[in-house]
Every structure is written in structure tokens, then in C-alpha cells.
Write a structure and sequence with these properties.
Blueprint lengths: L17 H45 L3 H4 L2 H18 L13 E4 L2 E2 L11 E10 L14 E10 L4
Antiparallel strand pairs: 1-2, 1-3, 3-4
Length: 159
């Protein structure tokens, strides 16, 4: 009696654990290649959050009524509130590191230091801080970190 060729048992190769060995060899290489894109994504995220915080604070400062901007104490309070808006929006960025205090300008002077009775033509919020690689520590951004800056200027449109 003849056995068909399709029923002849073939010798088995030993392939148990080959996938685990391949994973063990390739995983460190893949992690190294993923470090850089994740770091750049974090940089862009910090940058966009900082820009949005500065833009929202500047928009608020640009719409303060002119009667408030003519008074030194009220203009100082408006500038401080704009700074607080920016700080609260940036609070999620680096909870463990210190972010430099944002600055609110009315024309070229810090809000509240203009002469009484004058209204600014432009308002500006300036934010700068240094970002460090806290996740991996493998990307060298220097001793001072990677500087992130937002500088937004708008025309004052208060009534």
C-alpha cells in the first residue's frame, strides 16, 4: 500500500521562542529610534501651550475698558490678571520645574506704569522658560535647557 505524499509527516523545526528572541534583539533599537520623535513632540506641545497661553492673556488685556486702563491701580490689576491667565494655562506643562513669571506690557512699559489718563495703543505678553528632557534624559538640551518663548502683541481695542 502506497501512502500519499501529502500525508507523509515532515520533521518539525524547533521554532519555539524565536519571536521572543527577535523581540529581545529589536526592542532596544526601536526604543532608541522612538526617543527623538517623542522628545520633539513634547517640545512642540510645550511651544503650542505657551503660545496659546500668551495669546489668551493678550486677548484679555486688549479688551479691558479704556476707563480701567487710564487708572494705574486698575491697569496694574488687569496686567496681573492677564499674567495669572497665562500662568494657569501653562500650569500643566512642567509641574516639577519653575516657569519664569510672564510679563504684561502696555505699549513698551509694564502695565500700570504708564502715565495716568493715557491709553495704550498695543498690549503684549512675553513668556519664556526652559524645557528639560524629564522623560528619557537622553536628549541633551544643554545646561540651561531648551528655551521656549512666546511673545504676542495685539492692538489695544478697549472702549
Amino acid at each position: 500500500m502506497k501512502i500519499p505524499v501529502s500525508r507523509i509527516p515532515l520533521p518539525r523545526r524547533r521554532q519555539d521562542g524565536v519571536a521572543a528572541v527577535e523581540l529581545a534583539l529589536l526592542l532596544p533599537i526601536l526604543l532608541v529610534f522612538l526617543t527623538i520623535p517623542i522628545f520633539y513632540a513634547r517640545c512642540f506641545w510645550h511651544y503650542t501651550v505657551t503660545q496659546k497661553a500668551a495669546q489668551d492673556a493678550t486677548r484679555y488685556l486688549a479688551t479691558i475698558p479704556a476707563s480701567e486702563m487710564m487708572s494705574k491701580p486698575l491697569a496694574t490689576a488687569a496686567g496681573n490678571l492677564a499674567i495669572e491667565i497665562a500662568k494657569r494655562e501653562m500650569a500643566e506643562l512642567s509641574p516639577g520645574t519653575e516657569i519664569q513669571e510672564p510679563t504684561a506690557y502696555c505699549d513698551t512699559v509694564i502695565c500700570g506704569l504708564k502715565a495716568t489718563g493715557t491709553v495704550p495703543t498695543t498690549v503684549r505678553i512675553y513668556i519664556q522658560f526652559s524645557m528639560f528632557d524629564q522623560l528619557f534624559g537622553s536628549v541633551d538640551v544643554g545646561w540651561d535647557g531648551l528655551p521656549i518663548t512666546a511673545d504676542i502683541t495685539m492692538n489695544y481695542v478697549g472702549n
